[in-house]
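User: Sequence in, structure out. Go.
Assistant: Echoing your sequence, followed by the structure tokens.
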Amino acid sequence: MRPFIPLASPDIRDEDIAEVTSVLKSGMLVQGAKVEALEKTCNEYLNTQHAIVVSNGTASLHLA
């Protein structure tokens, strides 16, 4: 049997887990302050006025 070669070694920190837990406990999985903050960050990074985050690449293609 060949040895297992991992494709990636994720870098998941305690603060990442705390943020995910916070969102899950809030009940705001598709809207809310975290989504708004991400869209604002995208606006600033892309130097645009409007950005909409979606759940996955397929959803973004449907919007396009």
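User: And one key feature?
Assistant: Helices lie at 14-26, 33-46, 57-63.
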